[in-house]
Amino acid sequence: LRQAMMPKLSLVSGTLAVLLAALLGNAPGVPEWKYDLPNIVEEEKGETIQFTGGDGTTTLTGRLFYPTGRKKQTPVVVLAHGFGLTQDCSLDIFVNAFNDAGFATFTFDYATFGASEGFPRHVINPSGQIADLHAAIDVIEKTDSLQVDTSKIGLWGTSYGGGHVLVAAASQNPSIRAVVSQVPALGSGAESVLATLMRTPHMTTVALAKTLLASMKWALLGIVGKTWYVPLHGLLGSAAMMQNEGDNEGYAALLPPGGGKYGHRNAASVGSVFRVLMHRPINSVASVVAPSLLIAAEHDTLCPVEQVVKAAEIIEGAELLVLPGLGHFDVYSGDALKEILSSTINFFQKHLK
């Protein structure tokens, strides 16, 4: 009987192997791309600063911008960008506004992104990015040649970076004197997936199936030291990590033409998905003691207003600004941007000067 079953089992296993290979061959996403160490582009404005990231080995690249007509010991605002974004992705609006208000600003790229080193590229590691933010604060505090007041550091973060600055502030570093968290991601990725599933069950189920397929290919490639990527942003029903209504267009509007100086790509390692699913910044906000301003958009599907309101209630003395009728990406332009810049600058002037 056993001998009679062997040919059938071989046929079944062979068929399954062929089907699996066919499925994985059509898995959504892209493979690794050729990567050389970034050639740092010097610019007329700003000072390039390279420093060791939060892992103790990777070299990160940041830029320090001084206000016009600066005086020594200028307060400095450290900016933490959002999900998969780099310092040349529309941060200049905020940098210029803060500089004009008399603050120095420091932007930087997380490990594996932009001008910073790290391989494989485009790995979103929330705890690693928060460690990189701490490293950025540390280099500002300990580099004597910088003309900044290291006792007056402000943190500004948007979207995923909005969660990062609150977690960093929870360390209660006395140099951190003010925190602005703009449309922050405070819940876990799993909560976000569940909310999307409830809004659009059919298309989200399709998206989850595609992500599962991409994950299988990523796992198999990992055996031979390779990785696989899914899109950072895309349309509903794709394998993209952000695919709520308006995400694809809103995210793309923040990107520099052609990917910018350091070749930004619409890709994140599939391994990023699993890290993002469990990261939940709101668990840390009770430890924040620095004055904090939290900004929310009423109709934000990526970073729900309810979570921002809850965080503002938890953080003692926190100020809250809710922008009515707006979605997540509406805060980067128009009247909403003007209101945000005004409120943010007033807040920093109150607590940093």
Written description of the protein model:
The protein is built from ten helices and eleven strands. It is of the alpha/beta class and 353 residues long. The termini are far apart. The strands form two sheets. It has an eight-stranded mixed β-sheet with strand order 2-3-5-4-6-7-10-11, sandwiched between helices. A three-stranded antiparallel β-sheet has the order 1-8-9. It is 39% helix and 17% strand.
Largest sheet features: 8 strands, mixed
Instruction: List the uncertain runs.
Output: 15-19
Strand order of the largest sheet: 2-3-5-4-6-7-10-11
- Tell me the β content: 15-25%
The SS-based structural class is alpha/beta
C-alpha geometry: globular
The CA-CA distance between the termini, in Å, is 86 Å
Gyration radius, rounded: 22 Å
Number of helices: 10
Number of strands: 11
Mean pLDDT: 92
Helix % is: 25-40%
Any descriptors?
single chain, 353 residues, alpha/beta, eight-stranded mixed sheet, three-stranded antiparallel sheet, 10 helices
Q: How is this fold's topology laid out?
A:
Elements: H1 2-25, E1 30-31, E2 47-52, E3 59-65, E4 74-80, H2 92-100, E5 104-108, H3 126-142, E6 148-158, H4 160-169, E7 176-182, H5 189-199, H6 201-222, E8 228-230, H7 247-252, E9 268-269, H8 270-278, E10 292-297, H9 305-314, E11 319-323, H10 334-352
Parallel strand pairs: 4-5, 4-6, 6-7, 7-10, 10-11
Antiparallel strand pairs: 1-8, 2-3, 3-5, 8-9
Helix pairs in contact: 3-4, 5-6, 5-8
